[in-house]
Amino acid sequence: MNRTLNVIRMQLINRQTYIWIPLIILAGSFVLSLLVYSMIPGDVPKYGGGSQAPLWYFLAVGVQALTLTFPFSQAMSVTRREFYLGTLLTAGVTSLVLTVVIVAGGLVELATNGWGVNGWFFYLPWIWESGPLGAAFFYLVIAMLFFISGFWSATIYKRFGATWLTVVLIGLGAILVGIAWLIGRLDAWAEVWTGLVTLGSVGFAVWGVVVAVVLGAIAYLTLRRTIP
Amino acid sequence: MTTSDTVIEVAGLTKRYRETLAVDDVSFAIEKDKIYGLLGRNGAGKTTVMSILTAQNFETSGELRVFGEHPYENARVLRRMCFVRESQKYPDDALPKHAFATARLFFPRWDQEFAERLIDDFQLPSNKRIKKLSRGQLSAVGVIIGLAARAEITFFDEPYLGLDAVARQIFYDRLLEDYTAHPRTVILSSHLIDEVSNLIEHVIVLDRGRVIMDDETDAVRDRAANIVGDTAAVEAFAVGREVIHRESLGRVSAVTVLGTLTDADHRELALAGLDVGPVSLQQLIVRTTQHAAADAATDEGALR
């Protein structure tokens, strides 16, 4: 267990990757969004998706967690299992920090009625419909999903090479298209959209947890035979 | 072969990549608290063997035991080993001090004072990112981790790339000093055979994935001798002996003959006025490897 926790310290050597860049992305997209909001005339509520930007970046964090640190962890005589658990914990902690920043920003927005310009960067009604804790849960799950996806992609690349990574990604894309085709075939798009709306952000995030667990298990199985 | 002092046992170890056989039915045992040289040409399989022993790579078939257990995903075994490889990668943002602080967390016998002394010895800048270090400084980071970790089994895979002669000597000196004070098993793979020949007690030579020599260094040195003198006399002595190398300049010849010389041989040599010299470990290994390669070539020829 101690060695697993020490992996967190090993990962956090890359402070830039885990802490500074996500915060810079968040701050940057926040400032840009406010500038844009201030240019829009009228007092209609202005929503933007800018707070998602650092969540997308977690895809890259997942990639770097493997490529930058896995070979070094092997030199430190760390098992793959210790490395994986420690890395997931690192991702969990940094996702949590990011979530707290985003939710705190949303609370400030609520208190200041959109920074006085009715502009909403952190607070998006659909995500916040179950309150700040629901929103936090949603953001945390999405960040982890992005992280695990990035980590798994990098592991496939490391173990099987670029060709297989491309094949897997195209295969996943094909499955999604297949599902879309099936929904269209069953004439069920209306039901799907209503389903998503009634599911709400928390229900959506619960499904996100299921996907993250499955993907996380697959990523671990891929890592088990990866050579640094 | 197996005694209570055996720390590594390998039997029939084989690693096959799609086209090539990187390690071919290798068997050997490593004893506690000795310094081994794992020698051989590029591509002979040295790195692959060391990677498999540290569970970084996987065997295709064969048995291996480190401290009596398989090392794969085995923290109990792995934490007692340290593998310093020539092309080690470090986290992007890492300074040397980060790498050392991390090593301190994972190697239970890490000696911080020793590490600091080595940083001074190698004049390693500690506030420059590892990414930006010179080749020699990068090697020094690995060497310092390997030495200061004091792991019970330490693998050094060509650790000296880019280190100048002075820095290499520092490495050999510190290794020997610290080994004397804190005995442990060291497995050193190197191209500079003569440089390390005074360091290593036991030699394992790999050639094309096979073990072609596994013996005490002293015994290996006794295996062959250089005979120098008048060509006719040298040739007369060489009759019926296995000659692995021959050189001549004018009327003087030198041959390297395999086999330990007997007292009778020494008398014969003295009578013929021939000089006997020791063969350097490097020469012997180079010759034996060439010899093995030639044999392999004739075998293949005979098969066709």
Strand line-up across the major sheet of chain B: 5-6-7-3-8-9
Give the CATH topology of the largest domain in chain B.
Answer: Rossmann fold
Number of domains of chain A: 1
User: How many extended strands of chain A?
Assistant: 2
The dominant shape of chain A is globular
Q: Oligomer, anyone?
A: heterodimer
Residue share in β-strands of chain B: 25-35%
How many distinct helices of chain A?
10
- Stretches of chain B where pLDDT falls below 50 for ≥5 residues? none
User: How many β-strand runs of chain B?
Assistant: 13
Secondary-structure element order of chain A, N to C: HHEHHHHEHHHH
| Percentage of residues assigned to helices of chain A | over 70%
Strand content of chain A: under 5%
Structural class of chain A: mainly alpha
User: What is the average per-residue confidence, as pLDDT of chain B, rounded to a whole number?
Assistant: 91
Q: Residue-averaged pLDDT of chain A, rounded? A: 93
> For the CA atoms, what is the radius of gyration of chain A?
20 Å
Chart the SSEs and their pairings.
The complex is a heterodimer of chains A (228) and B (304).
Chain A lengths: L1 H10 L3 H25 L6 E2 L5 H15 L2 H6 L4 H32 L2 H5 E2 L4 H4 L2 H30 L1 H24 L3 H35 L5
Parallel strand pairs in A: 1-2
Chain B lengths: L5 E11 L4 E11 L3 E6 L5 H8 L7 E6 L8 H4 L2 E5 L10 H11 L5 H10 L13 H15 L3 E5 L7 H17 L3 E5 L3 H4 L5 E6 L2 E7 H6 L1 E7 H8 L4 E7 L2 E7 L4 H10 L2 E4 L2 H23 L1
